[in-house]
C-alpha cells in the first residue's frame, strides 16, 4: 500500500475541507457546505482522513456527545461519515483511520457507537464493535382525536433552532443525546427545517407526513411532553400511524414495539452500552 498523508481536525483548512465535502457528495450525495458556512461545524465533529495528491481519499469522523442512558449521563463518541473513494478501496484505509481515532480517545471515552452498512460490519467487528438490536415504535391512531386542519409549519431561524435545542430537556430518559446541536443543525440545513412545527410557545416538534403515516423525529421543550397528548395536537385526520424515531420513555396508548430488522447499530464498550432494544434518536444520528 502506498503511504498516504494522514490529517485530522482540519475544518479551518479550506482546500482539505472542500475536498472532504466533495468526497461526501460523491459517496453519499450529501452536502456539508451549508452546514459549515452557517457555522455549525464545531469542535465536536472531527475528521480523520487520508490525503493523496492534496485530495481527501478516505475519512472517518468523530462526533463527541453526551448520552442519557436510563436517566444517567455518559460521555460517548459516535463514529460517522466513514467513506473511501472507490479507486482507493480494499487497502484497509477506513480501518486504519478508525483505529487512529480509537487510539486518540480510548483514555477518555469507553462508549463508541455507529450505524454500519452490511458490508462494513466485519471491519467494525475487528475493532471491537458488536451488533445490537433496536425496536421500532409505532402508535396506532385509531380512537385518537385528530386535527381537522393540518398544523402550519413554523419558520424557525438557525440561531433560534440552536437555542430551542439547548433549552430542551432530553427527548428520552431511556436513550437520547445532548451536546449534539451540530448534528441537529446538519439535518436542519439539509432540509429538515421544513419539518418543524410549533405546538405552543414552549413546544416545537419535528415531524414529516408521508401519506397516512406521521414520522415523529424530535420534540423540543424545556419540560417533559406527554407523547400520547402531543400526537393529538399534531396529527391530521388522515393519520393512521405515528412512527416514533426514538424510544418513548412513558406509557402511550396503542404503542407497539417490534424489532427493526433493518437496524445495524454497533457498540464498542467495556462497561455500559445502550439499553436493550432501545432506539437511538434519528435526529442524533451522524
Automatic annotation (TrEMBL):
One of its GO terms (molecular function) is acyltransferase activity, transferring groups other than amino-acyl groups. It comes from the Bacteria. Gene3D superfamilies: 3.40.630.30. This is BH3929 protein. Keywords: Acyltransferase, Transferase. The keyword Phosphoprotein does not apply. Pfam families: Acetyltransf_9. Coiled coil: none annotated. Residues 5-152 form the N-acetyltransferase domain. The keyword Transferase applies. PROSITE patterns: GNAT. CDD domains: NAT_SF. It comes from Halalkalibacterium halodurans (strain ATCC BAA-125 / DSM 18197 / FERM 7344 / JCM 9153 / C-125).
Amino acid at each position: 500500500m502506498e503511504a498516504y498523508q494522514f490529517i485530522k481536525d482540519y475544518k479551518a483548512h479550506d482546500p482539505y475541507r472542500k475536498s472532504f465535502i466533495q468526497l461526501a457528495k460523491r459517496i453519499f450525495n450529501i452536502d456539508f457546505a451549508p452546514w459549515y458556512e452557517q457555522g455549525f461545524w464545531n469542535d465536536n465533529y472531527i475528521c480523520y482522513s487520508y490525503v493523496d495528491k492534496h485530495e481527501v481519499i478516505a475519512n472517518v469522523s468523530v462526533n463527541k456527545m453526551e448520552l442519557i442512558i436510563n436517566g444517567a449521563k455518559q460521555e460517548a463518541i459516535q463514529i460517522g461519515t466513514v467513506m473511501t473513494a472507490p479507486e482507493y478501496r480494499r487497502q484497509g484505509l477506513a480501518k486504519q483511520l478508525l483505529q487512529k481515532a480509537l487510539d486518540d480517545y480510548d483514555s477518555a471515552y469507553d462508549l463508541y457507537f455507529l450505524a454500519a452498512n452490511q458490508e462494513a460490519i466485519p471491519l467494525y467487528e475487528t475493532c471491537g464493535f458488536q451488533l445490537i438490536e433496536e425496536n421500532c415504535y409505532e402508535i396506532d391512531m385509531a380512537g385518537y382525536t385528530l386535527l381537522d386542519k393540518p398544523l402550519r409549519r413554523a419558520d424557525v431561524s438557525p440561531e433560534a433552532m440552536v437555542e430551542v435545542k439547548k433549552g430542551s430537556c432530553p427527548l428520552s430518559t431511556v436513550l437520547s443525546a445532548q451536546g449534539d446541536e451540530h448534528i441537529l443543525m446538519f439535518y436542519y440545513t439539509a432540509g429538515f427545517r421544513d419539518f418543524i412545527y410549533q405546538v405552543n410557545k414552549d413546544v416545537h416538534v419535528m415531524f414529516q407526513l408521508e401519506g397516512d403515516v406521521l414520522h415523529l423525529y424530535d420534540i423540543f421543550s424545556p419540560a417533559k411532553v406527554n407523547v400520547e397528548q402531543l400526537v393529538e395536537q399534531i396529527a391530521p385526520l388522515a393519520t393512521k400511524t405515528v412512527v416514533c424515531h426514538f424510544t418513548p420513555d412513558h406509557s402511550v396508548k396503542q404503542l407497539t414495539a417490534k424489532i427493526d430488522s433493518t437496524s445495524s447499530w454497533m457498540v464498542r464498550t467495556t462497561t455500559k452500552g445502550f439499553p436493550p432494544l432501545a432506539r437511538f434518536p434519528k435526529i442524533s444520528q451522524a
